[in-house]
Amino acid sequence: MTTPVAGAELTAELRRGLDTLVGDLPGRSGDLAFDEPWELRAFALVVAAYEAGGYPWGEFQQALIASIRQWEESPAATRAPWSYYEHWVRAFEAVLGERGTVDRDAVEVRTCDVLATPKNRNHHEPHYEPIAVDPARTTSIPEAP
After folding, report:
1. Which of 45, 73, 91, 93 is deepest in the core (most CB within 10 A)?
2. 1-46: per-residue pLDDT in tens?
3. What predicted TM-score, i.e. pTM, was given to this entire model?
4. Gene3D superfamilies attached here (predicted)?
């Protein structure tokens, strides 16, 4: 039986493993920082799926390279602005789609639904507390007896 690792040691151990896995990501101010909350979520999803045995890391790296190459080779006048983590999302979708883990059509439908949601619904802001899907619909959680 193994003894649980103390919190700080676990965090340091996970950080070393993550640093080894992802290498030199483009950082801001010399640190692994994210400009938007969704970038952190994309990063975390990719790493968590890999760690759960969802795919080999090299497969994701190749999909990421392919996404970036496709962006670089597209005409400058028609390509979207540069976003490193958008390429993470595209590579992640490609890997999961090729493996049959997710249905690409279902992802596309859900993406269109999310993008059609008005910005004033706050879906672009981080939420650290549970929130109602619709502000007009709230439910209370019954207290434990």
Report:
1. 91
2. 444 444 455 567 766 766 666 655 555 445 556 788 888 888 888 9
3. 0.59
4. Nitrile hydratase, beta subunit
Q: How far apart are CA 58 and CA 79, in angstroms?
A: 26
Q: Which domains does the chain have, with CATH numbers?
A: 33-117 (1.10.472.20)
- CA pair distance 140, 145, nearest whole angstrom: 15
Among residues 124, 43, 114, 30, the alpha carbon closest in space to that of 84 is found at: 43
The backbone region for 100, taken as left when phi is positive above 0, alpha when psi lies in -120 to 50, beta otherwise, is left
Count of all residues that appear for the chain in the document: 145
Q: What single string gives the DSSP state of each residue in the chain?
A: -PPPPPHHHHHHHHHHHHHHHH-S---BTTB---SSHHHHHHHHHHHHHHHTTSS-HHHHHHHHHHHHHHHHHS-TTTSPPP-HHHHHHHHHHHHHHHHTSS-HHHHHHHHHHHHHS-GGG-TTS---S---SSTT---PPPPP-
CA distance linking residue 139 with residue 132, whole number of Å = 8
